[in-house]
Amino acid sequence: MKTLYLILMCVLLSTSSLFANDAIKVKIHLTEEAKWPPFTPNTYGVTQEGLSYILMKEIFSRLNIDVNLELLPQKRMLLNLKAGRKDAVTAISKNEKRAEFLLFSEAIVQKKGYIYYSKKSHPSFHWEKFEDLKGLKIGVVAGHNLGVDFDAAVVKHQLDIKTVSRSKQNFDKLIAQEIDVLLSIEPTANYFLKKKPYKNEIGQASKQYYSKYYYIGFSKKSNAKRLIPQVNKIIQQMKSDGSLKKILSVYSMSF
Questions:
Q1: Whole-number Å distance between alpha carbons of 187 and 91
Q2: Per residue, what are the HEC states of 91-125?
Q3: pLDDT digits (tens, 9 = 90+) for 220-253
Q4: Closest C-alpha to 248, from 46, 52, 73, 7
Q5: Domains, the chain
């Protein structure tokens, strides 16, 4: 009986850090891709900056849970989630591979993707179908979900893809005319287009290449997945009371 008691106590202690009662402030360990403005404008390590942190702080504070957000390279971020070393990722789109190891909350933000071009190289730029991009050097960020239609077009039309690890590299290459166009979600592009040397030098094509919803992705190996019903209620409340819209409007985003 004594041995059984000790085992039960160990189990309770191992889970109590996340699921204690409201009188105790607990912590959730989150992760996100580093250097992905405006979600994570800064470098690797624990952060308290950026849209991802602001959103998570607001959501989990309503559940009396503290937030720890560590920024990692994308591959390492996903490996940590697969292994359950992190509880959740702050903002991620759905696909079949990710659904193998993640459970998703209600949508928290809608991301719209556009094609951007150098005004020096192209005084105006328009496209109607992905075939129109054939012959152009197209900048993309490795690991970013660009949509199944674009992925199929790359193969079908043998599009010339130039891959980098961070968004800033693409915008620098566009200014240097090392690429013709780049693909980016609108809030990330807006982050750069307000600053030199990008301001007034880069244009946005009117047609979107995709629009997707993003979610909090909970590791299937983390006890934090039990929080999903509560988190969904908070997200719904934030949509109803206008607080989510207020946060996102600062970054020209919607849900």
A1: 14
A2: EECCCHHHHCCEEECCCCEEEEEEEEEECCCCCCC
A3: 999 999 999 999 999 999 999 999 999 998 887 7
A4: 52
A5: 14-109+213-249 (3.40.190.10), 112-211 (3.40.190.10)
Model pLDDT for residues 139-164, shown as the tens digit of each residue? 999 988 898 999 999 999 999 999 99
**Residues 2-13: what's their mean pLDDT?**
39
DSSP-derived letter for residue 217 is: E
CA 234 to chain CA mean position, Å: 19
pLDDT tens digits, one per residue of 49-91: 999 999 999 999 999 999 999 999 999 999 999 999 999 999 9
90: its two tokens: 């702050």
Q: Is the pLDDT of residue 167 over 90?
A: yes
Bridge partners, residue 26, by sequence: 65
Helices of type H across the chain = 2-16, 50-61, 74-83, 96-99, 148-156, 167-175, 186-193, 228-241, 243-249
CA distance linking residue 52 with residue 46, whole number of Å: 12
Q: Please say if the pLDDT value at position 17 is more than 80.
A: no
**CA–CA gap between residue 146 and residue 95 (Å, rounded):** 11
CB–CB of 36/188 below 8 Å? yes
Which residues, in sequence order, are bridge partners of residue 32? 71
Cα 251 from Cα 235, distance rounded (Å): 18
Buried b (16+ CB within 10 A) or exposed e, 97-118: ebeebbbbbbbbbebebbbbbb
